[in-house]
Amino acid sequence: MVKVGIAGYGIIGQRLADGVVLQKDMELVGVVDVAPTLSVRALKERGMPYKLYAATKDNIPALEEKGIPVSGTMEDLLKEVDIMFDATGAGIGAKNKALYEKHGVKAVFQGGEKNDVADVFFHGYANYEEGVNKNYLKLTSCNTTGLIRAIDCLDREAGIEKVAITIVRRVADPGDYHRGLTNALKVDKAPNHQAVDLMTIMPHIEATGLLVHTPVTHGHFISVVATPKKDMTVEEVIETFEKHQRIRMVSLDEGFEGNASLFRYARDLGNPRGDMYEIAIWRDTVVKSGKDIMFGINIPQEAVTIPETIDAARAALGMQTDGVEGVTKTNEYLGMGAWK
Amino acid sequence: MVKVGIAGYGIIGQRLADGVVLQKDMELVGVVDVAPTLSVRALKERGMPYKLYAATKDNIPALEEKGIPVSGTMEDLLKEVDIMFDATGAGIGAKNKALYEKHGVKAVFQGGEKNDVADVFFHGYANYEEGVNKNYLKLTSCNTTGLIRAIDCLDREAGIEKVAITIVRRVADPGDYHRGLTNALKVDKAPNHQAVDLMTIMPHIEATGLLVHTPVTHGHFISVVATPKKDMTVEEVIETFEKHQRIRMVSLDEGFEGNASLFRYARDLGNPRGDMYEIAIWRDTVVKSGKDIMFGINIPQEAVTIPETIDAARAALGMQTDGVEGVTKTNEYLGMGAWK
Amino acid sequence: MVKVGIAGYGIIGQRLADGVVLQKDMELVGVVDVAPTLSVRALKERGMPYKLYAATKDNIPALEEKGIPVSGTMEDLLKEVDIMFDATGAGIGAKNKALYEKHGVKAVFQGGEKNDVADVFFHGYANYEEGVNKNYLKLTSCNTTGLIRAIDCLDREAGIEKVAITIVRRVADPGDYHRGLTNALKVDKAPNHQAVDLMTIMPHIEATGLLVHTPVTHGHFISVVATPKKDMTVEEVIETFEKHQRIRMVSLDEGFEGNASLFRYARDLGNPRGDMYEIAIWRDTVVKSGKDIMFGINIPQEAVTIPETIDAARAALGMQTDGVEGVTKTNEYLGMGAWK
Amino acid sequence: MVKVGIAGYGIIGQRLADGVVLQKDMELVGVVDVAPTLSVRALKERGMPYKLYAATKDNIPALEEKGIPVSGTMEDLLKEVDIMFDATGAGIGAKNKALYEKHGVKAVFQGGEKNDVADVFFHGYANYEEGVNKNYLKLTSCNTTGLIRAIDCLDREAGIEKVAITIVRRVADPGDYHRGLTNALKVDKAPNHQAVDLMTIMPHIEATGLLVHTPVTHGHFISVVATPKKDMTVEEVIETFEKHQRIRMVSLDEGFEGNASLFRYARDLGNPRGDMYEIAIWRDTVVKSGKDIMFGINIPQEAVTIPETIDAARAALGMQTDGVEGVTKTNEYLGMGAWK
Predict the structure, then answer these.
(1) Per-residue pLDDT, C338
(2) Model-wide pTM > 0.95
(3) Rg, Å, chain A Cα set
(4) What are the structural domain ranges in chain B?
(5) CATH 3.30.360.10 is held by the domain A142-299
């Protein structure tokens, strides 16, 4: 039984906790935060299904004043765990790393950290083996994680030479008040980091891309133009995607009209927090231009990196040294793959 | 054990199903729908925790073609239930009523139906006793249901003479594609129906109001100006609300910045579908002008009517003939009242 | 011919420039800004219809590098003008005041400054005479300016005792990228400053209010509950508003469905920048509850304060010492009052 | 002096009127509409700078009841004009065509009509000569019009083989209440019609594309992946675009952060209705992947087709038989090309 701690109990941290709880070969020892945020208050109202640790001693009074039970500091937690999932804000993970090293604890960082925080820039499907028995892994960001699922499985089938992506980015998560756009699209400098990151993880592919922020909260949309080495028909592309356990193929005529349909569907499924681990690809968007394949992906930004983060723990701790075995175990415990 | 059926498996119907399943003295026999909507597909993907009936024989082939197991028609369901919750689209409930009468089944209609479909226009707190042993009850709409909770409890404390409300209405539910507003406020003719409905349920109060539609999906906001007979301090108003099991008092400094904070909090609580049964009132919005009391309410439109609809079944079937006993039983089974 | 300068060439500053240019008894000497913003670039592309001054010498190189002709610094401008309209960001006006005093130049500040920057907190209709021959005036904010127009004219007719307002606030202006809300309402602590400001300007009225930010850009909406001393019918209220030159009465059946209709209408009228100086009140929203009058106002936030700011110059410079004469002159040159 | 009439006085019709008024070799005889819409009311409030005709006799009473001066019916107008710009709703243009034929009047239809309504599917830059002296021309839609400007000028420079586009579509115009999206992206079936239309106008290019609707009102965004025959550097691509009179090159560091910046800039320029005839391309988005060129376009949907529609009149009436002369004349009168 591997012992896991989580630093940062926000959008990602809470969902990592949900995911770890489902892994039968992992135990969630506790989570770390700095203040009585809404998420921490909800943990208390739920009856503390797992323990909360304060980041430092200084954070304890503010938490206890609100009646939140605190089990100690992050250093106390570090004495009890094998690995930390670091889901703190960008830059804080790099500072936490010194503590992880001090306590000899491995760690998986989220996409907001710089690459040099980790030994390996990791994706469960694309380079699992590179993470095996390493100490510090950094996960790809939400868009890159979902994008690589799709590109990797086409790459295994037909070899991918080149990719040009357009990201229609959701600008905030539901409940965010610290950022937002109102009646505006916002353009980023090209190429976007997701294209660059894809080339880091899959160096044999040339990638570029544009990104536009849009005033919505339920899921990014990525439009992909991929050039395969071997010609594939639209039907072969769809079949390839349908075999993937972390891809959900959907259609407009089923009622999946866009990102918001998928959010609604996840709630209707009774998924915890209305979350979705799978990316979705619309069958109706798979088209070709010459040999190039074009298709559209929905990225459920709040939960999409959870499976690959759990994969990272499996690799780092050597729980499974083979990628297929590792991701399959994660998928099994997360209950993925039921949709066919 | 009272046997319940639900007609219409959409936003409200699904949540009524969730709520009935939690009532230990009710059994959900099945739900009725007409087509393989996303909600029906999700029911299937969840493994059919309860049975689905087709509205008519004609609807069966389209459902079965998508692999949805169908247990019969609505008439088959009506033979097995004591009461129906009718959550079909506006106007359809009136047509269904003929079937309910034919089978001697009682029914509770949602706010979209016209008042004359029912014997009583019902609210669990304001007029429970009027619904006792009646055959056909119609519930107030989501805004009116939440509004009456707040007005009724002030009325019991200090007597309310007059109410002027401004409704900042969410224009669509998450996942809605058949309606929407983009960068626009939409003004309705005054007075709004919620003020008129409040006077129907509570005829001793004079009410009027304005309504503005806004491009958001997570909860309506109602600004209330209420004139009490007896003067109340701001503190007394807050205390009165805090005692109510279906009202959640929140503050800006806790992190509840608006409707979206409450939606996020409900998801973080692990509530089914991320739903909230309670209305929320901000302590920071309770102010006075002369004797008049002003405050702001958040109405979680998807789930707010569920408790009062269950109250209606308790009244109609005479399960509890006293209002306090009726609503208390509903609250107990829904797990409400933990927040203080 | 009175000589006017404008500090801050943003949303408000540009529109003040438009308004001053239309006044036949005022001359716009120039405008001041600090950087080659889009507004400054547009001024250049339009061929510099008036002069631009840099706030300080330090700002000149960055402006000239982009080819923007600079006529000197703000101090150079101050030597040539009788009065400055200060439309800089909040807090900067207070700093500029030292310069205005040094050069013996009068000034009108916008609502973002603190009240103590000025001798008088000013509104053209409610307290024109208090501003006559004063040196420093501060205008009410956009919402308060529009609100007072409506309350003042009811007050003159029937005496207003008490006001409770609900502001549905547009969260950003068209083109704003530095602030925004996405799918969220944001609640403010009550009472809002607009109610407090109204009591400062009209101390015989008791006022309170709530404010909710909404993700739209075209106009605030204010729902007003006003208690008059003398009873007025709905028709009398409408007639009173219709006589006001800065109020435009509109109806839903004409096609004015909300704030965005008014924005579109102003563009269709060919108004400069698609601006509207008038507030709009919907006839369909004027209702009563007991003696209380309720109605809904649209506040075109970008341009609504322009007329009252020009009134302030008339008062401060003693161009007209009588309020009716002052506002009438402003209205005449702005071309207001055509709509009846 | 060529005599022009306009059918349909909505978003496009009003802007065509603005554009025709600026053409020194065209005379706007009048515009046609069916009801006292806001646009028609604004025309009246502006003092009827041009005449209004009712579509049929039956429409006259409703217009006159609102005090709108009516100069006759569309048939009366048809007796006086050489060409009609038909900007009525989709499908109505096809019905109007019978009247145009009866009166021997040429016509230019907008993109909403089916292609078979016209002799030529027209774009001023891509196929001007095909429209010369033809009777019925149909313009490309707003997205296709702007897209072809960019593709055509690259095609002339380097030859374009293949294009894959992703359209981030604004879902409604400012002031629209009859359609809208709230917190949702909506996906369309691929390939989108714009890609298909591009191939119709430029049959030597293979094109495909995806389209996602977004809840904004100020401009579409098109992400283009274009495969040239001849390799071009990023600098050459930018230079090619900069020479085009209907393309405005912009940069993020100038303050053009997205579609809303361009809308604001057009208002600041004092353009009528805050309109922009040019498409904008961000220098920051021009990147390459292998030989493929990628870039992002802003399409100002309300006004972008005006220049090409005027080109169409020049072609159909043989005012200029050479394309370069035709578009240059249009540009001159519209005041385009000042930006370099």
Answers:
(1) 44
(2) yes
(3) 20
(4) 2-140+305-334, 142-299
(5) yes
